[in-house]
Amino acid sequence: MSTPAIYDLYSKIVLDALSVSKIKLNKCRRDFMIEIFMLYLSIPSRINFLQLGRYSLFGEQRFRRQFEQGFDFFGFNKALAMPWIGNRNAVAFDPSFIHKSGKQTPGIGYFWSGCAGRALRGIEILGLSVIDADTRLSFHLEAVQTPPTACLQDNELSLTDWYAAVIKKHLEQISSITQYVVADAYFSKRNFVDKILECSLHLVSKLREDADLSYLSIQPKTGKRGRPAKYGGKVDVTNLNPEHFTPVENNKGITAYSAIVYSKALGRNILLVVEEFLIKGKTIYRLLFSTDTMQAPIDVIDIYHTRFQIEFGFRDAKQFSGLENSQARSGNKLYFHFNTALTTVNIAKVMQLSNPDTRENSFSMATYKVLFHNSLMLSRFFRLFAINPNSIKNHQHVKELLNFGTMAA
Questions:
Q1: Is 145 a domain residue?
Q2: pLDDT(385) > 70
């Protein structure tokens, strides 16, 4: 593949997404969006305004001005993702900690870091992604910066209230994709679940192993006075009642059982799926649930397991597209940088899926970083030395240089 072909595929993917999403941009802004994703794919080191100016034909100030302007990342990423997303999908959301120092960054404070296992000083973004339970693909949709605790307290909001408000803000766009949202066990709180259900969405998540659950009564009516019993005893996950729980068939070798039970913590009936794992001779139980009691239990398992793919998107963006590199002191610039870094990973995934030769390969963001960096360098050489990269004589040499340092197919 010659250098122009790589850029042709990249430009086609970006322009098609802009067309499908119907984002209105003038020519200057459209050209900038095509350029900015290419630069995030090409720059091998830190990605900030200074570096963007060094690797571009334009100055640093151009990027500072353009980053202040808005862009519909949700619509753009939805257009990128939906051709590759099947029917068994959901929108996953998860906070991610971003390391930051100094005092001038908007929204800086103390946030929970899963890697460190404690709260650290920095900022946090809440990422929304669409996932496919069949292909296990995950595509970023939008990232929103979390306000610091003091700001939430001033507005009499809890952290879960704010997370739910983000879902409600994007309700129309989420509903156009799916009726299910999936999150980790932190979000299995009654006030959060109630707000999700008010949006006509359903939550797939996980409960604690010691959750207070009750069987629904299956005893026939006696005809005596008084209301019949609603519940039929506590659920013991180590000794499930076969009258209520049925095995969940799956091709992954997972031992799982499902039933509709009552959750005291959530104050409602839920579809519960109990998974059993044998780890180091000890049986471990994982309690998954869905607020949609009519959902297929296998879908609850597959959707929750696929939820973790959102973490790989954060990882790739941090390692390869500069998610933590921005030094901006404007909320709008930070928003643009975070979403550009995460959207760049989407574009690399679509490039792999669009090529029949690489579609079945494991995704490697490192390969596309090297490929685009090589392309950028070769394009600069071709332009300065007036070399024709498409000539038959140069074709094999260009291909060899282009793929230098990439992973073998």
A1: no
A2: no
